[in-house]
Automatic annotation (TrEMBL), chains A, B:
Domain of life: Bacteria
Record family assignment: Belongs to the class-V pyridoxal-phosphate-dependent aminotransferase family. SerC subfamily.
NCBIfam families on file: PRK05355.1 (NF003764)
Function as written in the Swiss-Prot or TrEMBL entry: Catalyzes the reversible conversion of 3-phosphohydroxypyruvate to phosphoserine and of 3-hydroxy-2-oxo-4-phosphonooxybutanoate to phosphohydroxythreonine.
Organism name: Moheibacter stercoris
Binding of pyridoxal 5'-phosphate, residues: A75, S76, W101, T149, D168, Q191, N233, T234
N6-(pyridoxal phosphate)lysine modified-residue sites: K192
Gene assigned in the entry: serC
Keywords, alphabetical: Amino-acid biosynthesis, Aminotransferase, Cytoplasm, Pyridoxal phosphate, Pyridoxine biosynthesis, Serine biosynthesis, Transferase
Protein name as annotated: Phosphoserine aminotransferase
Subunit structure: Homodimer.
InterPro entries registered for this protein in UniProt: Aminotrans_V_dom, Pser_aminoTfrase, PyrdxlP-dep_Trfase, PyrdxlP-dep_Trfase_major, PyrdxlP-dep_Trfase_small
């Protein structure tokens, strides 16, 4: 039976990525060697990294002021790298608190300086995006999280800012067009729309670096990764090959503009059903709903085992919500086909017919 | 033609690891899902991490005082994590300087405190292991590098120390039996004897943590990774699956005791030929020669293109030495079969017959 994979990440990737990765593990580019056993310094490995960086630049129309790097440690290490690279000694930063990952970023920045939480949606368990705030002009940078995987909210616009803007886009990067020039640091763990878990991508405005007065540990220093073309140390060749294949697939879908139309269609299909169906309620405020992660609950929790049985029988996997929200979470990343959302919607309709 | 892969890392891994990885990329444990698309929190993914940790403990007989963790960022991030976790505020550490990677570790420690280089082989381009030194008792820890991949040297014994001992074992971990109890932190990038590039393993004596007075960034904190069972954030499922398969293969070879015999046999075969053959000279001092990386040069550099042609025709790959040493480097990690070393030795003999 076909599996409809709504996992929040690591998550579904295109079938052709799996096929090509599987082949390359045995025989990379007909070299007779596995992609796992070649040096990252070999020309054909170097091409994998260079192509991945180039594809990000092309797909997101990254301006020349910015550079693209791939490192390791996920967004959690970016939480540390951002203040090391952006916060002056005895400096400060403004953070928008929109969920668990934003809180994680705030926690790390506080270890290096003063953090001002300029707005928070903690009062309603992060079910909305705060909008009534002003980014101060006397901080070193402003940090926000564009998509909150756990709570199903997404920033549809970004505030005016006179200071550098840093954004964690781990769960909605490459899902739609983006004006990169409005951001100074964008970072994103690969394991949603970019590839397998094991790498994290950053897009950095080179002009904002080198201003903190800190002696930055080398691995945490954006400038070093930029200078070394993301090969400061041994990079995860297998993981980046997965990223490259995934970016090539995205390009063939019409890039971010092309995939954005399908992502909108998927989100509309599911949210329409959540709103129409009397047995379910969406948890996020309507205007802040995420196109990537739709969170919803049963109005009658007593029916949980019945609904769970039905979606599992339909081949749906990984629909359970995060423990912080409960209920259900349908993650609809780039590689999830419309067909899978239709299967979920059909199950919700059948469930209504039976128990409504 | 069979490839004899002498790459210094990422390097050869067992064929059965490639086969099983390739299958799991398409269909992990007959679940119908790729190992790249499942959540790291799923029970069958969790089992991959738990089994990997357990196998390290079993293979190296890790005592209960120590814990095993897997993180990302390679040994280069460990260079940063070690002083953050081990060096007191305004503290100091003693480092042994035996090569390029030791220098990298020293550079990062200096950013956090006072570093005393208690011995160095820089005077002879790191072709030996210094032995005439005493580890001071008034430092926070002593750091050394057990195997110097670039220079072909290896520590055959470790000094007495009254302070905690930290060792970078990236390129000889799991190649032979080891008394873990004599070390307080051992770390090793996976991409030599452990698996594909993309993870780094650390074995940490829990009793030495929490004594620095530092507010450690979360990702850099050993205690957090220990507390979270190496799942503080999304870990690289694909890479760790490769580690698990490789550790299982090693267990089936008779563990570190079994592989150690073969590694000794391979090293003896090659070093005997280097010493016997009048056209070559080994670059490392004999008593400090590495079992993992044999470095040697041609006595007559004019014959380089002839020798290069011969070994390439024999199916040998990645034999060129690092630019810091020149000449040749034969890396003989666990998965390299004795047969491949024999092919190299046969080429060296044939080369001597033709040009000797």
């Amino acid at each position: 039976m076909k599996i409809h994979n709504f996992s929040a990440g690591p998550c579904i990737l295109p079938d052709e990525v799996f096929q090509k990765m599987s082949e390359a593990v045995l025989n990379f580019n007909n070299s007779g060697s596995s992609i796992m056993e070649i040096s990252h310094r070999r020309a054909d490995a170097q091409e994998v990294m260079d192509t991945s960086i180039q594809l990000v630049k092309e797909l997101l129309q990254v301006p020349d002021t910015h550079e693209v790097i791939f490192t390791q440690g996920g967004a959690s290490l970016q939480f540390v790298m951002v203040p090391f690279n952006m916060m002056k000694v005895n400096g400060s930063a403004a953070y928008l608190e929109t969920g668990a990952w934003a809180k994680g970023a705030i926690k790390e920045a506080k270890k290096l300086g003063n953090v001002e939480i300029i707005a928070s949606s903690a009062d309603q368990n992060f079910n909305y995006i705060p909008k009534d705030y002003t980014v101060p002009s006397n901080v070193d940078y402003f940090h926000c999280t564009s998509n909150n995987t756990i709570f199903g909210t997404q920033m549809k616009s970004f505030p005016e800012s006179s200071v550098p803007v840093v954004c964690d886009m781990s769960s909605d990067i490459l899902s739609k067009p983006l004006d990169v020039s409005k951001f100074d640091v964008i970072y994103a763990g690969a394991q949603k729309n970019m590839g397998p878990a094991g790498s994290v991508m950053a897009i950095v405005n080179k002009e904002v670096l080198g201003k903190t007065g800190r002696d930055i540990p080398s691995y945490l220093d954006y400038q070093i990764h930029i200078n070394k073309g993301s090969a400061f140390n041994t990079w995860p060749v297998l993981a980046i090959y997965g990223v490259m294949l995934n970016l090539q697939w995205l390009k063939n879908q019409g890039g971010v503009a092309g995939i954005s139309k399908i992502n909108q269609e998927k989100a509309e299909l599911l949210y329409s059903e959540i709103d129409r169906n009397g047995l379910f309620t969406g948890t996020a405020v309507v205007e802040d709903r995420s196109e990537m992660n739709a969170t919803f609950v049963l109005n009658n929790e007593d029916l949980k085992s019945e609904f769970d049985k039905m979606w599992k029988e339909a081949g749906i996997s990984s629909l359970n919500g995060h423990r912080d929200v409960g209920g259900y979470r349908a993650s609809m990343y780039n590689a999830l086909p419309l067909e899978s959302v239709q299967v979920l919607v059909d199950v919700m309709k059948a469930f209504e017919q039976k128990f409504g």
